[in-house]
Write a structure and sequence with these properties.
The protein is an alpha/beta fold. It folds into two domains: about 90 residues, Glutaredoxin (3-Layer(aba) Sandwich), CATH 3.40.30; about 140 residues, Glutathione S-transferase Yfyf (Class Pi), Chain A, domain 2 (Up-down Bundle). It is built from nine helices and five strands; from the N terminus they run βαβββααααααααβ. Strands 4-3-1-2-5 form a five-stranded mixed sheet, covered by helices on one side. α1 links the parallel β1 and β2. α1 crosses α7 and α6 runs parallel beside α8.
Amino acid sequence: MITLYSYPELFGVADNNGYGLKVFAFLKLTGVPFTHRHIFDASGAPRGQLPYIDDDGEAIGDSETIIAHLIQRYGLAIDSGLTLAQHHTDHLITRMLDDLYWVMSYSRWQDEHYWPAFHDALLAQHPGLSEDALRSAQEFNSMRYYYQGIGRYAPADAYARGLADLQVLADIIPSNRFLHGPAPTTVDAAIYGFIANIYFFPIETPLRQFVAARDNLIDHCMAIHALVSATPPAEQYAGAH
C-alpha cells in the first residue's frame, strides 16, 4: 500500500503545496490506491522535503522521482500516448513550475501585504499550529528565499517572474481541454498543483488576480479538481498529525 505524506490541506485543496498536490492529483488520476497522511514536520522525509511516499516500506521523495517510480512500478499508461516533442514540452513546463513555486511561496510567507491573511488562514484551519511554529517557519522560508534569490527581489520584480510563468501557461493551455488532448496527463496534474494553490486561495495576490482573469486556466483547474476531489471507496485517509 502506498502512503503519501504531504502538507495539510487549505482552502479546499488537498495540499497547500504545489508539489504535494501534484502527486495527489497524479495518484487520483491514475487510480492508484493510497493513504494520504498530512504532516507539517518534514524532518523525517527524504532530503527533509515533502511530499514523499512510502511504497511498501520504500521511502521516495521529490515529486518527479515519485511519479517516475509509480509509472515504472505499476505500469501506468497516463503518458504513453505522448510524442517525444510533448514529453520535452512537459519537461520544460515542469522546470517553469519550479520557478513559479518560489514566487507563490514568497507571496505567502514573505510579502507583508499577504502574509497576515495566510497566517490567519493556517491558524484558523489548523488550530494545532502555534504562533511560534509559524514564526519559525516564516524565518526559515525567508532564509531559503534569500539564498535561492527570490528573497532579494522587490515584490513587484518577484511577481513579474511569476506572472511571466503564468502567461506562458495561459498561452498554451487550450480552452475546454487538457494540455495534450481530451484526457489529462501527468503535466496536467503538475499544472493543477500550482494553479489550484493560487486560484482557490482567497488572497488577492497578483498571481491570483492573473489566474482569475484567465478562463482557460480556471477551466483547466476546475476540470482536474472535479476529477481528483471525489473520494473512491478504496481510498483511506488519515487526519493531520
